[in-house]
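The aim of this short unit is practical: by the end, you should be able to scan a pair of folded records and say something sensible about each. We start with the first protein, listed as its amino acid sequence and then its C-alpha cells.
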Amino acid sequence: MNNEDSLLPPGFAALEPYLALWSAPTASQRDHLRGARGEAERLAFYNSAKDLLPTALAYLDQRSLRDLNSEERRLMLLMLNLAHVSLAVELQGPSEASHSALRALMPITRASADRDT
C-alpha cells in the first residue's frame, strides 16, 4: 500500500486492520464496543496500539481538531477507542464482563469529544 492509499498517517499502518472495528465516532459507541467485544479482540487492539499512543498523541497535538484530514481523524478515533479499551484491559481485567453489565445501567450518552462529530 502506498501513502496515497493509506487510511492512516505515515507510521500508523499497523493500526489499519483495527479501523473497521475500533473507530467508533462517539463516546457512547466506544463504550458500547468496549463491552460488546470479547477479551481477545480488546487485547489484540490494545497490544497493537498502546505503544503507538505517545507518537499518535504527539502527532495529533500538532493539529487543530478542525483541520484534521480524514487519515488524521481516523487516527484520533482509534486513540479515543484505545482509551476505552485501556480501562477494560488495565483496570478491569477479568472483571470487565461484570463491569460491562453494570455500565449498561448508567450508559454514556455523549461526551465533550463528541462535539465535533
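Turning to the second protein, read its sequence before its C-alpha cells, just as you did above.
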Amino acid sequence: MLVLSRKENSKIVLPELGITIEVLKIKGATVKIGVDAPRSVRVVRQELLDQTEKQRSNKVAKLKRHDLIQEPKQLATNQRKKRTAAKACPKTQPESVWQSQLPA
C-alpha cells in the first residue's frame, strides 16, 4: 500500500485511470475527500461495501435454512414439480417427439 501525506487542497492523480483524489478540508480528525472519476468507475465507501456483502450472505443463509426447514412431504412435492417441469420441457425430450408436437 502506498501511504501519502497530503495537506488541504492537495491532489493525488491516477492519470491512466482518469481519477483525481483531492483533500478538500481537514477539521480535527475528519478529512473531507473529493474523488473525480469516470462514470464507468465505481467509487464506494468501504462500510457500504461491507454492508452489501453482509446482506447478501444473510439472504443466502435464509434460503439455505428455508430449504432445511421445509417439511419432508413439501420437499418431496417440490422435487416432483421440478421433475415434471423438466419432463415438459421439449429440449429434454428426443427431437422427433417435440417436433411431431409442433403445429403443421
